[in-house]
Amino acid sequence: MKNNLVADKSIEFSIRIIKVYKTLIENRKEFILSKQMLRSGTSIGALIREAEHAQSKADFLNKMNIALKEANETDYWFLLLYKGEYLNQQEYDSLEIDIKELIKLLVKIVKTTKESLGR
Fold first, then answer.
1. pLDDT tens digit string along 83-92?
2. Which residue in 9, 3, 37 sits closest to 100, CA to CA?
3. DSSP for residue 2
4. How far is CA 87 from the centre of its chain?
5. Domain boundaries, the chain
6. pLDDT tens digit string along 4-54?
7. What's the short name of a Pfam family annotated to this entry (predicted)?
8. What three-state secondary structure class fits 29?
9. How far apart are CA 9 and CA 113, in angstroms?
10. How far is CA 99 from CA 1, 12, 114, in A?
11. Distance in Å from the first CA to the final CA of the chain
């Protein structure tokens, strides 16, 4: 398989999300918001993986759009976990760097794909 920057970053991000989730449930006894973060955060990579074998460019665009929405939702859960004092400033800032980078990559992919489809 050839190198795919967004796929590679989404896998690294998913592993990080799993570790943050484990810390939140084991050490900070937070179960609700962290589960939402886990679901949306790991689905980004799953959608990108699905898009690799999309049936058409339109299907690819749809999957990448959904991955972008999941990334945005994950960012929302980070904010709530931070504001709810389950994540400290340093943890939040570090996660924000990663999710913002994924969002930027996905926005670029969606925009480029839309242009190639003439939308």
1. 999 999 999 9
2. 9
3. -
4. 18
5. 5-117
6. 999 999 999 999 999 999 999 999 999 999 999 999 999 999 999 999 999
7. 23S_rRNA_IVP
8. coil
9. 19
10. 24, 11, 22
11. 30
